[in-house]
Design brief:
The complex is a heterodimer of chains A (323) and B (299). Chain A is 76% helix and 0% strand. Chain A has 323 residues and is mostly helical. The radius of gyration of chain B is 24 Å and the shape is globular. Classes of the chains: A mainly alpha (323), B mainly alpha (299).
């Protein structure tokens, strides 16, 4: 087998294994609670009968392995079970129905951010690496350091204050519904997207700069310079082929970071995404929803990192031409 | 015969204080700025009850009073003094983040060094579990665990310390692996030193610089995560003063400004307090990194 294919398959297998272990971790977190989940929810005064009834209601009376297999089997079919809210009543609320529209909103926001943030930060980062120690580099460096150190909600509120309250250019709250058309959706999601872009660009630019500077300092670049290769050609022919892997890692890492960043930003702008749903469900301890959200976030995160791994394997010139 | 120079007062090594002085003299402006800010925060956190004019959760006036001589930054939504709460917030937020980081380093650091020394199945087992933990973003995992265990400060500290210790473990193990192959560790083993000695006297001092840098960065991360969780309403609970939840409590002032008051900056004070501290720590860590590792990214 070609070594590249072999490594890619190995990495894929490892990714799937991680996904499995993570799903077990997410599922098992409920079992870790001393005294059981029912007691924690119902409080000290709960009689054994109420506890038993509650456990039967949410299916906690059966063995954990059986429940895990049922849960993961359902998840693979896109069925995350039923929300605790309204569980006792006639109308059961399916977690999948709850999540589906919000998942679309969240991905909408994430993709919108990524389309702007990825090219912007790559260009800024590459320029900062090429002209390092210039004024441009220093200004960009200190600006991004400040942005990284600032909590997302602060940036979000600053933007909201200046662009939605002082100057009424955007809506301060990004309420969207199914009937919102695409352009309107983009307009309403603009402020959250700008917030996320600022945060992501800061991270991604710094990492791109660091990766490239590392690369430019390597001996073969010095060699190229010494043997008289023009700078432009040295960068395109010698540096760039080796730069794809670190750049792919940087992009994936930051898109994965984006997945987490949406939680806070969605809450600030009351954007109906999956992050807000998760926070609400944590407050009401609605475990099926929390677990479903956690699994989706974790899976996205793992898949993005896996993708970066595979890109860096495929573009690695040393692996492509085995001895 | 020439008199031998008086060597009694010549010390071979500079004292810690002298070393510190010499190092500080070379510190750049940004590092000085960072250190002064951190010092101010620490003083505010330690002496909070002495500095704050009013109590932490004491209602001392009407809601939303403007800043003035009586209330330096005005009052919040139920009439508590904002300045006092900001200072108590330093104590709570920084204190909790500091203890969390301390625990995570105690657990993660010790385990990391231990597994690097021992290797074997224990190393494999712990490393695989840690890999799985690393595959889930901290904020997401923390949210989920808080849903299971319920919101309380103790739970918050333990959960974040657990999640953070996996990151510390990774670094401690990786750096310790370089050290445990050194001859002096081998010599200590042959001397028959106990495990505790080898960990604390041989390995730990040699992985200290990267670990201290990491401590600064992890502290920032924990601090920001706690602020974010509190802001989301699942971290530190009221009436405890905390910067994250203080922003959340007064956030309506931004979205729905009261017409009578042109602008109440209440939500911005705690947010600025958070940002300033993290920037300050980052400055100091940058400088420290530069000093200890000789890591210069421009060459």
């Amino acid at each position: 087998m070609h070594p590249v294919l072999k490594t890619v398959l190995q990495r894929l297998g490892l990714g799937l294994l991680t996904l499995f272990v993570v799903s077990v971790l997410i599922f098992a977190s409920l079992e870790l609670l001393p005294g059981g989940f029912a007691e924690a929810i119902l409080g000290q005064g709960a009689t054994p009968e109420t506890v038993a009834a509650f456990n039967r209601e949410i299916g906690l009376d059966r063995p954990a392995t059986v429940r895990y297999l049922e849960w993961i089997g359902g998840v693979l079919h896109g069925d995350f079970g039923y929300s605790y809210a309204g569980l006792g009543g006639k109308i059961k609320q399916s977690v999948s129905d709850l999540i589906a529209p919000r998942l679309y909103n969240t991905f909408f926001l994430a993709i919108m951010t990524a389309i702007v943030a990825v090219p912007l930060s790559l260009i800024l980062g590459i320029l900062a690496a090429l002209y390092r120690n210039s004024w441009y580099d220093r200004i960009v460096n200190s600006t991004t350091l400040t942005t990284i150190a600032t909590p997302e909600f602060f940036i979000a509120y600053l933007l909201m204050f200046f662009f939605a309250i002082k100057n009424k250019w955007f809506y301060s709250l990004s309420t969207v519904s199914d009937s919102t058309d695409l352009i309107e959706h983009m307009y309403r999601a603009a402020l959250p997207a700008i917030t996320l872009t600022l945060v992501i660009v800061a991270h991604m630019m710094r990492m791109t700069r660091a990766a490239l500077i590392n690369l430019l300092a390597s001996p073969y670049m010095e060699m190229a310079q010494l043997k008289g290769v023009p700078r432009r050609e040295a960068i395109v022919k010698h540096a760039l082929p080796n730069a794809w892997a670190p750049i792919a890692t940087v992009i994936a890492f930051n898109l994965a970071y984006l997945v987490v960043g949406v939680v806070v930003v969605e809450v600030v702008f009351v954007y109906p995404g999956i992050g807000q749903l998760m926070v609400d469900s944590v407050s009401s301890r609605n475990m099926p929803v929390v677990q479903a959200c956690a699994l989706i976030f974790a899976a996205t995160y793992i898949l993005l990192n896996l993708l970066a791994d595979i890109v860096s394997i495929i573009t690695n010139p040393r692996l492509l031409h085995p001895k | 015969m020439t008199a031998a120079p008086d060597t009694r007062n010549v010390r071979a090594r500079r004292s810690f204080l002298e070393n510190a002085k010499r190092t500080l003299a070379t510190a750049p402006f940004s590092a000085w700025f960072g250190m002064i800010i951190i010092l101010i925060y620490v003083i505010a956190a330690v002496f909070a009850p002495l500095i704050a004019p009013y109590g932490e959760a004491e209602v001392v006036g009407k809601a939303y009073q403007p800043a003035g001589a009586q209330f330096w930054l005005g009052t919040d939504q139920i009439g508590r003094d904002l300045f006092s709460r900001l200072i108590y917030g330093a104590r709570n937020t920084i204190g909790i983040a500091f203890f969390t980081t301390l625990i995570s380093f105690a657990v993660g650091g010790t385990l990391g060094v231990l597994t690097a020394l021992k290797r074997g199945w224990l190393d494999q087992a712990i490393s695989r579990v840690v890999d799985a933990f690393l595959a889930i973003p901290v904020l997401i995992f923390a949210l989920m665990l808080l849903a299971v265990f319920g919101k309380s400060i103790l739970n918050l500290i333990l959960i974040l310390a657990l999640l953070d210790s996996t990151r510390v473990f990774r670094l401690a193990r990786a750096t310790a692996l370089d050290v445990v192959v050194m001859d002096y560790v081998e010599a200590a083993k042959l001397r028959g030193e106990r495990m505790g000695w080898i960990i604390f006297k041989e390995v730990l001092p040699n992985i200290m610089p990267p670990m201290i840098t990491e401590f600064g960065l992890r502290f920032c991360f924990v601090f920001l995560t706690i602020s974010a969780l509190s802001f989301l309403g699942v971290g530190i609970q009221p009436p405890t003063a905390d910067w994250g939840s203080m922003v959340a409590e007064s956030k309506t002032l931004i979205t729905f400004p009261v017409p009578k008051f042109p602008w109440i900056p209440a939500p911005f004070y705690p947010a600025i307090a958070i940002a300033l501290l993290t920037v300050a720590i980052n400055f100091v860590v940058d400088w420290f990194l530069h000093k200890t590792s000789g890591l210069r990214d421009e060459k």
